[in-house]
Prior knowledge:
The chain is an alpha+beta fold. It is 16% helix and 39% strand. A hairpin with a 2-residue loop joins strand 11 and strand 12. The protein is globular and about 55 Å long. The two termini are 36 Å apart.
Amino acid sequence: MFTGLVQAKGRLERRTPQASGFRLDIDAPFGPFELGESVALNGACLTVAEAHAEGFSADVSVETHERTTLGELPEGSELNLERSLSVGDRLGGHLVTGHVDGVARVTAAAREGDALRVTIEPPNELRRYIAEKGSVALDGVSLTVNRTSGDTFEIMLIPHTLSVTTLERVAPGRRLNLEVDLLARYVVRYFEATGGAERGLEATLRRAGYLG
């Protein structure tokens, strides 16, 4: 589990094809890493397969390759890094699983003072999970949805986020790993399972004792 608060930017040193997927060698500015620990790379939760003095190596499965941008990044690219939470850590962003749902596309980016307003087009099947003032993770960065409009939504990147993440170079056409809010996913699933009837939610709350 992660929070979407990027700890540092790493660098993709090498991508090596394997029988199923590929291996990434990452140069990281912090460590040491432990074999088997979880690290989010641009929002994708990967397992440390090998730890070394400069960083670590991790294997990317075919499933992760198909759902993320990790297979299209050139060697030398910077990546957002976050180690998994420990019990007692602060939850400064929002609960992020590191299970990327799909790839979104930047359609516009405009400066507003020191900040950057960015318009994002998510995959059609993920739009229903995105709500105004809700949370999303883009390339592993926890962000608040400022506004939704048609097929897109807007976020605002403040100077701190621009300085400590790879989103400093965001521009129209860029593809970003998107993870929708965990709570939104379960709320939508609930209403799908109950046929969208409000009385289903009311009955559940009554059985739980929240309604008289």
